[in-house]
Specification:
Length: 73
């Protein structure tokens, strides 16, 4: 199966919390500012669908999905 790598941009994050609601195993929010905290940069297979959905729902576009390029080491 394709590996999935995630990254988050806390500068863009608006603290809306959609990610933590949608994929609580993968995303959290910090207590002070409510900004996204990435718990799993490479989520296990059972959490990938939720992680992808969360990326699509993020109103700030702060979650990036990428699969590593196999030729890039
Ligand atoms: S859904 Fe987007 S804007 Fe909202 S907390 Fe998550 S990363 Fe931040």
């Amino acid at each position: 199966m394709e590996p999935l790598r995630l990254s988050v941009d806390r500068e863009r994050c608006a603290g809306a919390g959609m990610c933590a609601l949608t994929a609580p195993e993968v995303f959290d929010q910090d207590d002070e500012e409510g900004l996204v905290v990435l718990l799993h940069p490479a989520p296990p297979p059972q959490h990938r669908a939720a992680a992808r959905m969360a990326a699509g729902l993020c109103p700030a576009g702060a979650i990036a999905l990428n699969s590593p390029d196999p030729t890039d080491s």
